[in-house]
Amino acid sequence: MLRRVRRRLQGLYGRLLERELSGTPTHVAVIQDGNRRYADRQGKGTAAGHRAGAETTEAMLDWCSELGIEELTLYAFSTENFDRPPAEREELFDLIERKLYQFADDSNVHEERVRIRAIGQLYRLPPRVRTAIDYAEAQTENYDSQYLNVALGYGGRAELLDAARGIAGAVERGELAAADVDVEAVEERLSGGPARAVDLIIRTGGDERTSNFLPWHANGNEAAVFFCAPYWPEFSRVDFLRAIRTYQSRQESWQRTRTERALALLTAVGSDERARLLGRLRTENADIDLPDERVEEVDIELKAD
């Protein structure tokens, strides 16, 4: 009885959250933490925790599709995970291999035209996992409506180090001038990386750190970050909506700050240009409450001019 009531309340809360959302991120990246702790709490082996986490991953794909999120990156296996006990690594590789084939043959993936890609030091993975990656990528390589990036053998520092080495080699061979090393040159060498900058990072399991995840695509974009207590197998649609609300609040705060700075800069330009820019600010930010006192200051200065 209590479980049924709890489910109904969660459903109502979820619908309320969804009505409050005015926009969604384009690219969400998830650190799926807590599978092993979930299994321990259930009195089961680690493999059971990873299998339960895989079910949440499938649900996450559906939620992203429903909300129009165009790109999802999942931190499935980090470079640090290579240090786990051999038996647990093999369990993870078994699960990853199976899920890659499953996703590649899933009718929903093909109906939604989801492109599957793996990122990371893939050469360190067992051949059977690399074969599954090749299959999933080949089955979906012509799709571009949505992207699912699976981070395997991934570490942000290693990714940037590989890019730096590639650039250094190109400069040494005379293929690239040192003066021409720019953002584009780096991104070209982040092979197989996300198509878009990351807007929102989610980490489950209670830890409040981003664990070397997508430093170029997330930190460079000042991505919003949402930390939550539920282990990954327990992560729900309501938790996901709360994460998106965090992103939305951050975007509104950032836009308001940018507008306030723009208003401050208006005092440094001539009156004609100031009037034009003030009108543009009001038009472009009609959905945001501009700081009235600052607008009044600018209006007073315009009249004085």
From TrEMBL:
SUPFAM superfamilies tied to this protein: Undecaprenyl diphosphate synthase
What keywords sit in the KW lines?
Answer: Magnesium, Metal-binding, Transferase
Which InterPro entries would you find in this protein's record? UPP_synth-like, UPP_synth-like_CS, UPP_synth-like_sf
**Which Pfam families does the UniProt entry name for this protein?**
Prenyltransf (PF01255)
Question: What reaction is this protein's catalytic activity?
Answer: geranylgeranyl diphosphate + 7 isopentenyl diphosphate = tri-trans,hepta-cis-undecaprenyl diphosphate + 7 diphosphate
Cofactor(s) named in the record: Mg(2+)
Per UniProt, Mg(2+) binds at 33, 222
Record's function text = Catalyzes the sequential condensation of isopentenyl diphosphate (IPP) with geranylgeranyl diphosphate (GGPP) to yield (2Z,6Z,10Z,14Z,18Z,22Z,26Z,30E,34E,38E)-undecaprenyl diphosphate (tritrans,heptacis-UPP). It is probably the precursor of glycosyl carrier lipids.
**Subunit structure, interactors included:** Homodimer.
Q: Which NCBIfam families match?
A: uppS
HAMAP family recorded: ISPT
Stated name of the protein: Tritrans,polycis-undecaprenyl-diphosphate synthase (geranylgeranyl-diphosphate specific)
- The source organism is Halomarina ordinaria
